[in-house]
Amino acid sequence: MQRPTSLDHVLAASSIRRQVTVLGRWLEAEQATDARQQVETAASIRSPDIAEPSPVRAIGIDGGYLRLAGRRRRQDGWFEVIVGKSMRDQGAGHSFAYVHKLEHRPADRMLNFLLREGVHPDRPVTFLSDGGDTVRSAQFGFGDRGECILDWFHIAMRVQNLEQMIKGRPAHCDGPSNATLIEALQGAKWHLWHGCPYPALHRLENLGRDLGAEASSEEAGLLAKLEELIIYLDNNRGFIVNYGERYRHGEPIASGFVESAVNQVISKRFVKRQQMAWRPRHAHALLQIRTAVLNDQLRSHVERWYPSIARAENHRIAA
Fold this sequence. Notes:
Layout: H1 13-44, E1 56-68, E2 78-88, E3 95-99, H2 106-116, E4 125-129, H3 133-137, E5 146-150, H4 152-167, H5 178-193, H6 197-213, H7 220-235, H8 243-248, H9 256-265, E6 277-278, H10 280-294, H11 298-305, H12 307-318
Parallel strand pairs: 1-4, 1-6, 4-5
Antiparallel strand pairs: 1-2, 2-3
């Protein structure tokens, strides 16, 4: 593969795109090499009798969307980007990102990331996500080692939104009072906090029946949101844990740390105010560069490719 060239003169936009694509591919190749070296190093070292704790407490995974280039209207086409970040016991976590439609082996990418983070192949790892199908695909393939947890923040926000809708319910509506509905909703939330999805779903389904029996046209939106919450929890019931116990032991229960990474990786040049449109392969390459910069790893890669840069920097510091 051709190496990216030094930028010692002004380049046209097409040249920049080519250089970004080449650099992104080189970074991916370097990351895969680093991961293989981690495996070889781990295999050459005798495993201790007592397993050392993992340096990574959890991996958060979230997604964002970029506008697809070549569409006349903004709403015509979008594609998803998956972003992950590690939460470490010491030091700042590192990020990775990729275009979902271009990654056919997301579990392998996750494994490479874990190896680069120093997580031994036989160590357990905790994944936090909002439960979406695309983010979940990056969590699978780890067997009993992988503990997948539904992010508590997303549960709490959905319950809170439903509570606000109940409070806005017209007073003249028939059926249970708003206070009774909120009490039932909070009871379901209590069960969820303690890792009991089935009693929570039972309460929510009863709440839906109570509303549906005397539902008015004003309550149609409330019923739809309630049904949406029931489906969401039912689809992710296997990833609902005892959040209260984890919280008391200082273990992570929410993926806010990765949501901030999404905002860093998919910056305004990607999708915010400027609303730029992207082709998936170009975006994917730039994501590799962006995460390397955020991880403070880009320079070390470039210096391996161009030792003269490292020598020049050493001379500058010495001077």
